[in-house]
Amino acid sequence: MLVYIARRLVYGLATVLGVLLLLFVLFFAVTNPDDIARRAVGERAAPETYQRWKRNHGYDKPLVVNSAHRWSSYKRYTDTLLVEHYRRMLSFDFGRSDADDAPIWARIREGIGPSLSLTLPLFFLGLLVGVSLALLIAFFRETYIDRVGLLLCMLGMSIASLVYIIGGQHLIGRLLKWFPISGFDPDPAVIWRFLAVPVIIGVLAEFGGTVRLYRTVFLEEIGRDYVRTARAKGAGETRVMIRHVLRNALLPILTNIVLAIPFLFIGSILFESFFGIPGLGALTVEAINGNDFSTLRTIVFIGALLFIFGQILTDISYTIADPRVRLGARVNQ
Fold this sequence. Notes:
By secondary structure, this protein is mainly α. It has 2 domains: 2-90, no CATH class; 104-332, MetI-like (MetI-like fold), CATH 1.10.3720.10. The protein has 16 helices and no strands. It has helices spanning 2-30, 33-41, 47-56, 75-78, 81-90, 104-139, 144-158, 161-175, 191-222, 225-232, 237-248, 250-266, 269-275, 280-289, 293-321, 327-332. Helix 6 (104-139) crosses helix 14 (280-289). The longest helix is centred in the middle third of the chain and has 36 residues, at 104-139. The protein is flat. Residues 328-333 have low confidence and may be disordered.
């Protein structure tokens, strides 16, 4: 177990280094630091202004090789943007925003609270609804309830999330006037009023795909030998579905759950933008619109770290859900 975790951590570190190299190519090699400076201070600024801005933001060094140092000096290859990029990202020294010089860490701390306030209830409520309805449809398999459920799932998957958002805002916010259409207030007494509409719409938007996926998983487990054995011993259908089928379907469900965890911290770009929630998703949109490359690079890096951590956590959770799984054996196969 420990050997496997150490091996996965090494693979994860190699993946992080590769992601950082890709980010460097995208944000420094493809997008020249001079272009970043022009977008930040304006096209008509003086050359001295460009150089001063690049120096304040750490963009004044050469990309890979610093010809200002001698061939024998190690600074020829370390005093560069590439090494500085790796140093800052790996030490979580994200610096300041290219748009307004605000500390990036401060913005992330401000945005993670609103993002989690939206994504956590959306995640748990969606999981509860998806698993419960999928188990119910699988229980009534090959009946009109199963067929109607599949039809609703297909209809739900065929409608874009944007339609759900606009329709939900108009129906719940404008016509019924139950909750505010947009905005955010962190006060625990009123925060639920601002999150009710996006959470309801989010659950409805993900309903079709989630229920259909879990229904397929449950139907596969229903055809196993252990289910027929349980029925032969006199176990009722309800007991078989809950105690046997649901329990043995935990592995694919856990995979879907753990892989979704990193995205809880990144936030939802679409929902936060339409509902005026000042989370990390909205921060990403602001960074794109404002040519804030340093903030955007940081968010992409944090997302990659969380995704790699989620992959490792998924494999570890397999052994907790099913002791028959042996990680070392899976790796060697």
